[in-house]
Specification:
This protein is 71% helix and 0% strand. The protein has 100 residues and is mainly alpha-helical.
Length: 100
């Protein structure tokens, strides 16, 4: 019985470690995206926000089920796009239609 409990504790510890790694990777990605967004002109950021909102609407317009995960994802995207820090004087001007 002790061996079984010890194995269970090891499995739970491994899952906890994996979850922490995913959280750290997500936070890192969040910081990178926020840094990129802050360097964009406000008009480009708004255009991007509108396109993302349209994508959410079209993706979930056909599906009647609106899950908690979808709501959380949409709120996270909105928070990221509405993240306001002092405007950077070195914003990148991007004209509509410019593609890398």
């Amino acid at each position: 019985m002790r061996a079984l409990l010890a194995e269970l504790v090891d499995i739970i510890a491994e899952q906890h470690k994996s979850e922490k790694e995913v959280i750290i990777q997500t936070e890192a990605l969040n910081l990178v995206v926020a840094a990129i967004l802050m360097r964009l002109d406000d008009s480009v950021r708004m255009q991007l926000k509108n396109e993302i909102d349209e994508a959410f609407a079209s993706q979930h317009g056909c599906c009647p089920a609106y899950t908690d995960e979808t709501y959380i994802l949409q709120r996270a995207v909105e928070e990221l796009l509405n993240f306001h820090i002092c405007p950077s004087p070195e914003k990148i001007p991007i004209e509509p239609g410019d593609q890398p």
